[in-house]
Design a protein that fits this description.
This protein is mainly α. It has helices spanning 36-49, 53-66. The termini are far apart. The model has no long low-confidence stretch (mean pLDDT 84).
């Protein structure tokens, strides 16, 4: 297909493209072992709020990091 034959609705030059606002929030794929009951908990919560469960886990961890939450463990 020649550029002249391209439909006007697909011509990206006329859209005045802007930078991706999420480009600064790059993510790195990792492998992590999480208990099944923990995954189920986040999956259920994700269904309630309407976001993917991995996104919800990331948001939760990001909130912990942003607010510098201190972990309290009680081993019984």
């Amino acid at each position: 297909m020649l550029e002249d034959d391209m439909l006007e609705e697909y011509d990206l030059k006329s859209l005045n493209p802007r930078p991706n606002p999420y480009a600064k929030k790059l993510k790195k794929q990792i492998s992590i072992k999480i208990d099944l009951n923990t995954i189920d908990y986040f999956k259920n919560q994700a269904m309630i709020v309407g976001v993917p469960y991995q996104t919800l886990i990331n948001l939760y961890l990001a909130d912990c990091a942003k607010n510098e939450r201190k972990l309290e463990l009680n081993w019984k």
